[in-house]
Structures are given as C-alpha cells and as structure tokens.
Amino acid sequence: MLGSYRDLFATPGAKPLAAAGLLARAPRAMVGLGIVGMLSQRTGDYALAGAVCAVFSVSIAVLGPMVARCIDRHGQRRAAHPALAVALLGLTGLVVCSGTGSTPWADFPCVIAAGAIPNIGGMLRARWTAMYRNGPRLHTAFSVESVADEMTFMIGPILALTLATAVLPEAGVLCAMAFALVGTVAVTSQRRTEPAPAERDTAHGPSVLGNPGLRTLTLTFAALGCVFGGFDLTCVAFAAEQGHKSEASVALACLAATSCLAGLVTGAVRLNSRLPVRMLAGMGALALCTVPLLFVRSLPELAVVLMVVGVFVSPSMITANSLVERLVPAARLNEGLTWLLSGLSVGMSLGTLLAGWAVDRLGAHTAFVVPVGCAGCAVVIVLSGLRRLGAVRQEEPHRVGEPALSGGAAAGR
C-alpha cells in the first residue's frame, strides 16, 4: 500500500509541493467560521454573521471559476498573485470594519472581494496532472489531494473558531490571511512543477462548463454540498435535542476520519472499472448509507452511521476529479475543478437553509430527510448523465510518464 505513495513523492518537487499546498488550502476552510466567530464576538448578532458568511460562500462560487480561468490562461504565478491581493484586501477591510465597529453594511463588499481567493486545490491538481498525466501516479496524487482537503476542513474551522474565541475576535481571519499569503507564494514559487498556460485558442474559448459531463458533475457536487450542509446543521440540532450539543463535532469528525482513511486506501489501489461506473457506484453506496439516519435514536448510533457514510465520500470525490481530468482540456483543468468547488459551495449553503427550515418545522430527527433526499438526488443526476460522463476530450496523445510542464520549467531541468 505504501509503495504507491513512495513512488509519488520520489519525483523531485513533489514533497515541497504537497507541503506548501497543505498550508495554502487552509484559508478556504478557516474564513467562514473565522467570520462567524469574529462578528458574533464583536456584535453579538448571529444573523449578521451568518449573512456575511453566506455572501462569502456565494462570492467564492461566482468568482472562483473566473479566477481559475485567468490562472489557466496566464499561468499560476502571474494570475494567482493579483487575485490573492484582491482577496486579502477584502479580508483586511473586513477586519478593520470589525475592529472599529463600522456599519455592518460595509462588511458585504469586503467579503465579496474576499471571494477572489485562488482555488489552491485546483492549482495543485493541475500541477500533479502536468507531472503524471496518463500515469498511475496521478490517481494517487488526486487521492492525496482529497485527503488533504478532508484534513483541512477537519482542523481549519476548529482552529479559526478557537482563535476567535480564545485569543482575539479577528485572530481566526488574520491567521487564515497569513496562511493564504505564505502558502500561495510557496506554491507559485515552485516553477518546476507549474503547468504551461493555455494556448490562445483554448484560453479564449467558451467556458468549460459547456461540457455536458462537467455540468453533470457540477450539479452532482451541488447535491453533495446539500448533503454536507444538511449534515452539519442537523447533527448539531440532533445533538442539542439529546442534551449533548458539543458532541455533534465528534459525530462529524467520525465522518471526516473514515473519509480520510478511505481516500488513502483508494490512492494505494489500482481500480480497473470505468470511471463513470465507479462514480455511480460510489454515489449509490453513499446515498444508501445515509438512509439509516432516518432511524437513529442516539449520538453513538449517529456516529456509526456517519462513519459508514464517510467511507464513500473521498473515493467519490477522487473519481469526480479524475473524470474532470478526462473531460476538459488539460490547460483548462483548474477552471474545470473550480466549477466543482462552486457547485459544492452553493449546495452547502442551500443544504444549510433547507435543514434549518426542516429542523424548525419538523424537528431535528425528521430533518435528516434533507441530506438523505439530497444524496438520492445526486444519484439520479449521475445516472441521468452517465453517458455524458463517459465522453473523453480529444487531444494529442501524451506519452506516459512524460511531465507536461511549462517552457521555463522544462528548460530548467
């Protein structure tokens, strides 16, 4: 099992790239709860904190693909730095508004600008693809990225909220800003692994969302986001009904832990099944495993069910990322992957809203119908688009094991 990961990190530049990426991806997981912690501490207005956080999520969903397209067109180093500067300027304005007690309306344009933060996960997957395209190590690299995402979203929100409540209300957002600056610069400074910018004809073509297979995956991720958003709120409400609200995080951590483990195992094995079939099987298993949520009566039962659900989360996301690599031109991979993230962000916001409505009107236990139903919708979406997911982009063949790096990187070898 470990041999696949030894092979992956044996390539020069792979270890520092993974390390820098782990730091650079943290801000996306930290800013949301950092904003909630900061504004709730300063104003005591949770409605305002939730509204600002929701606008930030929408901004990421809208601006993310635009920023990703610029990065694909002009290169990661040239385009990511200006986008990061805009995002940091917006977060700085938000921190200043919080510290000075400015009018709450000033928070919204700040978080809209903050949505320009580059999608480091997409940039890293584009680099791995340039290094290992058509080789077996690309599957392992995508698995590493999915596990890193899971770890970030396990630790990042807790760190942001802890800093906001125990150190300074603005500390969580400030820490996220520092991670974004240091991590992004650390990634973009590694020129050896940077993929070449898109050719002019490709770069100025229509959005890759025009690809029917990518639209299917984006809608699938929106449904998955509804599942995850529903999990978060409904689990907290269910734990509160049981008189142990703080233990909701333990149940959610069980899901993340098994998802990480499943991602590591997936990266170490070689699967011969077709990717669309694998995607359908993974989503079907995930949806089936959510059904017992309708029958849980205690927190231990909830934790066990979420552990089983987590087994199919990372493998499904790894398969989806591999499908995007097959569906869109290599030079537009970052944009394609960012559309999945946009779908996930919008879905999480919608799932939280639906779950909140269900909890208020039906009760926490019955509200589990929201994530269960959304998981079923994800299966239907994949099934209806199965043929579209099987399409493969038409490009010049690339020799296995030959990294497709930028001209400067190739010249430097």
From TrEMBL:
The cross-references to InterPro entries, in alphabetical order and at most eight, read: MFS, MFS_trans_sf
Q: Keywords in UniProt for this one?
A: Membrane, Transmembrane, Transmembrane helix
Q: Where are the transmembrane segments?
A: 46-68, 80-101, 158-182, 217-240, 246-265, 277-296, 302-324, 336-359, 365-386
The keyword Membrane belongs to this UniProt entry's keyword annotation: yes
Source species, domain of life: Bacteria
Name of the protein in its database record: MFS transporter
Q: Which organism is it from?
A: Streptomyces blastmyceticus
